Amino acid sequence: MLVSKRLNSPEWYEALGRLVADADGLEQADALIDVVSFAAQDEGTCLLAFHRDAPPQILHHTINPEDARHYLDRYIAGPYLLDPLYQLAMKPDKPVMCRFRDAQPDRFRSSEYYHQYCERTHLVDEMDFVLGVSDNTTVVLVVARRARMFSKAELQRLQLISSIVSNAMRNIWNRWSARGDAAPGDSALHHRLTTEFENFGEGVLTARERQITQLLLRGHSSKSVARELDIAPGTVMVHKRNLFSKLGITSQYELFSLFISNLSRY
Q1: Which of 65, 105, 70, 69 has the alpha carbon at shortest distance from 85?
Q2: Contact, 56 vs 76, CB < 8 A?
Q3: What was the pLDDT predicted at 1?
Q4: Which residues are CB-contacts of 248 (< 8 A; sequence separation ≥ 6)?
């Protein structure tokens, strides 16, 4: 009943009418957010294009300017490489919908990336609509909540409208990408950032230690690293002690700070 009643009101059909109107990308994005809000009230949305060979693009958002400068601008500058959502978006087998907490490594909420870029947003729940629009680009609509978790009925309603959302996202992307100023960002910068991440510690750490460092930065625990690399947890702990010693650090926080400091050179 909760599912059908909310999505069967005159206001709902009016919102759908605005969504299918012949509008430009930004107007259609506004209409899409209105449609989504009927299924589940949000407290912030962001429509992004993740690229395999360029930094992400923010197509539309409802975040206040101060928070946008703090989180979105900093995010695009490099830390997106550590985002589980970015990793998910780049996979060939992507879900249509994803609850952000289900895509996180097991120690993600203990990671410095989480503390620096997620915890400060005060988000308690997030649903993501995921749409691959080409081999190199995935468009994602983030629907966020700050006060409470999404209810079962809200998740059902979001699932019900997922095909509407996906088609609208594709239309918005098509209109966006047709614009003269819509080309992806600096691919050379993305390449340098990606290379920095993949080679972080090169010349100091072994190849295995660099692998472990990358997983630790992304929020994996020692047990999760062991599963990912198919080695014993005790072996991971030995590598972790060694790489911390070689880098002259003693904590995950210092590891993250060292990595971000390296990224800031770009």
Answers
A1: 105
A2: yes
A3: 41
A4: none
90 with 130: CB under 8 angstroms?
Answer: no
Tracing tokens 């790489």 back to the chain, one arrives at: 243
Closest alpha carbon to 71 in 9, 5, 142? 142
The rounded average pLDDT for each run of 10 residues, N- to C-terminus, in the chain (266 residues) is 67 88 83 92 91 91 79 79 89 92 80 73 86 95 91 92 95 87 72 84 93 89 91 94 94 85 70
pLDDT recorded at residue 180: 67
Helix (H) or strand (E) holding 114: helix 112-117
Residue tagged 């390296």 (tokens): 262
Residue 49 · residue 57 · CB < 8 Å: yes
DSSP run (H or E) holding 145 = strand 137-145
Q: Locate the DSSP E strands across 14-124.
A: 45-51, 57-61, 97-99
Among residues 129, 133, 172, 159, the alpha carbon closest in space to that of 31 is found at 172
How many Å from the N-terminal Cα to the C-terminal Cα in the chain?
A: 53
Q: Which residues contact 75 (CB under 8 A, 6 or more apart)?
A: 56, 83, 117
* C-alpha to C-alpha distances, 213 to 41, 52, 164, 190, nearest whole angstrom: 38, 21, 40, 20
| Exposed e or buried b per residue across 198-213, where buried means at least 16 C-beta atoms within 10 angstroms of its C-beta | eebbeeebeeebbbbb
Please check whether residue 13 is in contact with residue 19, taking contact to mean a CB–CB distance below 8 angstroms.
no
Contact 38, 187 (CB under 8 A): no
List, in order of start, the domains of the chain with CATH numbers. Answer: 2-177 (3.30.450.80), 200-263 (1.10.10.10)
Q: What are phi and psi of 43, to 5 degrees?
A: -130, 40
